[in-house]
Amino acid sequence: xxxxxxxxxxxxxxxxxxxxxxxxxxxxxxxxxxxxxxxxxxxxxxxxxxxxxxxxxxxxxxxxxxxxxxxxxxxxxxxxxx
Length: 82
What we know:
The protein is an alpha+beta fold.
């Protein structure tokens, strides 16, 4: 039989638990990285508070995360063309 002291058992338990959490985090980050990059349509700037943000919304009307103003997507496209 293998003799195992209490301190070594606790050390092994913490090491294995930390390693599993680290591997799960690596797997989660690697699988969701592609989803995040494809969800962003464009970089937008609020015309009212000039806050620059990544647009994750698919609709015609956007919401500024800082001042919570509603922004029409057509207005943003016209400003980019000029």
